[in-house]
Amino acid sequence: MALLWRQELFAGGKPQHLKECLVPLLLAHRTEVAGVNLPNKTKGELPELLQHVRQLRTALPQATDLDICVHYSVNANYNHTPEASFTILTNFCLELAELRCSLLLVSGGGPRKRLNSLAALERIESSPAWSRLQLPLAVAYNPYFPDAARRQEEEGRLRAKLVNGGGRIQAVYLQAGSDVPRLQQGLKVLQDLLEELGMSGGQQEGQQDGQQQPGAGDAPAQQRSGGQPSPAARPAKRQRQQSQQQQAPQRQPVRVYGSVLVPSKKQLAAMKFRPWGGVFLSDEYLSSVEAADAITRRLVGVYADQGVLPLVETAVEGEADVTRVRQLLQVAST
Length: 334
Known about the structure:
TIM Barrel, 47% helix, single chain, alpha/beta, 13 helices, globular
């Protein structure tokens, strides 16, 4: 059984590195890499992200179905006011939609601004520019907060994101962490929420959520009129329904992706010295590569049981790195 995972790509402002190193790796392992993610960490790199997407589409013409998800940090791209910052987001997404991508919207690290990912989703729902924009969105969820009140707050934010997404949300990305019981609890919260909101995969077998069967939209009106459609009103109503369906994003079952860090001595030392914001790793995890590997395999085992596709957040730049990832994810195929 072929192992599947998503892979974050780190071009680091080096187009040649993307072309000469990362693209050949993707070609060699296209049956294993189900999609790629391009992170957004700093201000001013949006043009570079668009350039990388165009390079990937040009260099991989045969991989037309390769899912490219571009990250967008609201904090990193904040510009003076919420209104100006939302305009930057909208303009970026207009270009991104033409490149057949999806967008992971995150608040990002650093001091809190007056616009975050949830506030941006609320603006998206009422934005005329977004009413015609066909761009799948993804949101982040962190189940690992040590404090129970903070976890409850995060669950409330997740609910608000899914509700305010207006049917645009097609994926949820889980933050990295090391606490297996909290991951299991968080996945239960997430799955219950998706089912409650009608966004899980088991709703309508054989069709995408939010899509009607042929003719289904006409049934209620025909029943009200005794089964006879009104000759004058019916074409106009059907045209309005078709127009609304074309403009509104078609809701699909929400996919869940889970972060995977590939442990190394260098990474563990860096995490001890300067932990990533919002990434909670236990002392046991940080104690050695062997301990971190064991915990990672348990996390991946939970992913496999729950149908969560791994997202490898550690750079993969050669065959040795691919082999290392395979070893960590092997449990997912058993």
